[in-house]
Amino acid sequence: MKTLELFKVLEQNEDKSLLFEYAPNLLVGANYHITEVKHTKIDSVDCGSNKDSWNETIIQLWESPNELGKTEYMSVYKALAILNKVGEMKPYDFDAEVKFEYSNATFHKTQLFINDFEIQGSNIIFKLAVEKTDCKAKETCGVTSKEPVLLDDEPCCSPDGNCC
């Protein structure tokens, strides 16, 4: 989801509570804060010697240990106020992909993209997902896009296995 689309969705749902699902059926705690917004420029060279560049908006979510047990989630209205204040200080690239940076005691720190969102009553829930790594130069490097097939009767990590 692009930054502009995120803002539009939030603006259309200011009266809702803002929830984030960081893995299937696992929600960021109601004690979360928006602790940082990063305007990041990526300049890269892939394994096929192709140059690329793009911008990302990365919004960091952090669960406050001082608010464990909190049950009321941040309102979209409040989140928009925070994000708009950031935009006044450092303008957004509204074409930039938006990601959420998050971790907790059982989930490693990572940047999650918005896979989808849904309205459930008075809540808007952004469904986040981990982006898999990929080779951008498959043709140049001769990489086929076929996934390895694991046969049911073949142990995964045996010498004849095909996944280790």
* Coarse morphology: globular
Helix and strand element order: HEEEEHEEEH
Strand order of the largest sheet: 2-1-7-6-5-4-3
The tally of strands reads: 7
Largest sheet geometry: 7 strands, mixed
Radius of gyration: 20 Å
End-to-end Cα distance = 34 Å
pLDDT < 50 stretches: 160-164
DSSP helical segment count: 3
- Give the tally of structural domains: 1
User: Percent of residues in beta strands?
Assistant: 35-45%
Helical content band:
10-25%
Given the helix and strand composition, which structural class is it?
alpha/beta
**What is the typical, i.e. mean, pLDDT?**
90
Task: Describe the model.
With 164 residues, the protein is of the alpha/beta class. It has one domain. The protein has helices at 3-11, 76-89, 138-141; strands at 17-23, 26-27, 32-45, 51-63, 97-104, 107-120, 123-130. The protein has a seven-stranded mixed sheet with strand order 2-1-7-6-5-4-3, covered by helices on one side. It starts with a helix and ends in a 23-residue tail after the last helix. The model is unreliable at 160-164 (pLDDT under 50).
List the helices and strands and how they pair.
Elements: H1 3-11, E1 17-23, E2 26-27, E3 32-45, E4 51-63, H2 76-89, E5 97-104, E6 107-120, E7 123-130, H3 138-141
